[in-house]
Amino acid sequence: MAADGNKRKRPNILVTGTPGTGKTTTSSALAEATNLRHINIGDLVKEKNLHDGWDDDLQCHIINEDLVCDELEDVMEEGGNIVDYHGCDFFPERWFDLVVVLQTDNTVLYDRLSKRGYEGAKLSNNIECEIFQVLLEEAKESYSEDIVKALKSNNIDDITRNVSSLTDWIRSWPPTS
């Protein structure tokens, strides 16, 4: 049974973490392994113009959280979704059966973000976010702690192991009470 008492046939999973921790890679591989729908919020925001303009300092769209939630409401009620985004506190708690927070060592993360062209405030803000475990704390404050799972995501072996354990979790869903 879903967190809100709905009887979804397939679970909804949120994959979150600082940019560069492997959310999209993990979500894509997990969707392929389980036939769940992968929803990349960054792509959705661009495709459907669910934003309020561009932030020049952080070099990203300013997402309109209300528009994003309105766009996703029906599909989330159906279940069977893997939502991939670096934030998590604006999604309704009832949507998710599992919240995965990917974490990466700072030296690995620094290299990944530098290769993506992150610099200045954008680079330092994201590294600090990871150091202080901001997204793990945000997830624990926004969702029941028993559905929040932190997973190491430093290399392809970690990602493979994470996809395997998450696939097992999906196959055993819903949990028996």
Task: Give an overview in words.
It is an enzyme of class 2 (transferase). One of its GO terms (cellular component) is cytoplasm. Keywords: ATP-binding, Cytoplasm, Kinase, Nucleotide-binding, Nucleus, Ribosome biogenesis, rRNA processing, Transferase. It holds the Pfam family AAA_18. ATP binds at residues 20, 22-25, 116. The structure is a single chain. This protein is an alpha/beta fold. The protein has one domain (16-170): 3-Layer(aba) Sandwich (Rossmann fold). The protein contains 7 helices and 7 strands; from the N terminus they run βαβαββαββαααβα. The strands form 2 sheets. The protein has a 5-stranded parallel β-sheet with strand order 2-5-1-6-7, sandwiched between helices. A two-stranded antiparallel ribbon has the order 3-4. Strand 3 (51-55) and strand 4 (60-63) form a beta hairpin. Helix 1 (23-34) packs across helix 7 (156-171) and helix 4 runs antiparallel to helix 5. The longest helix is centred in the last third of the chain and has 16 residues, at 156-171. The mean pLDDT is 94.
